Amino acid sequence: MTRYLTGRIGQAVLVLWAAFTVTFVLLQALPGDSIMIKFENPELGLSPAQILEVRARYGIDEPAVLQYIHTLMGFLAGDFGYSIETGTPVLQRLAEGLPETAKLAAGGFLLAVVLAVTIAFVSSYTRFAWIRGVLLAVPSLFISIPTFWLGILLIQVFSFQLRLVPVIGGTEAQSLILPVLTLAVPISAPLAQVLCRSLDAVYTQPFVAVAQAKGASRQWILWRHVARNALVPTLTVAGLTFGELIAGSVITETVFGRNGIGRLTEQAVTAQDIPVMQAIVVLAAFVFVSVNLIVDLLYPVLDPRLAAKGRVAV
Amino acid sequence: MTITESQQAGTTSLTTPTTKAQQAWPETGQQTTEPPRTDAGGRVTEGAPAKRRRRIPSIGLILAWAIVAAALLWVVAPGLFTAYDPISGVAAEKLQAPSIAHLFGTDALGRDLFARVVHGAVHSLSGAFIAVAVGLVAGTSIGLVAGSVGGILDAVLMRVIDVLLSIPGLLLALTIIILLGFGTVNAAIAVGVGSIAAFARLSRSEVVRVRRTDYVEAAFGSGARLPIVLLRHVLPNSIAPVVALAALQFGVAILAISTLGFLGYGAPPPTPEWGLLIAEGRNYVATSWWLTTFPGIVVVLVVLATNRISQWIGGERA
Question: What ipTM score was computed for the predicted complex, to two decimals?
Answer without folding.
Answer: 0.81
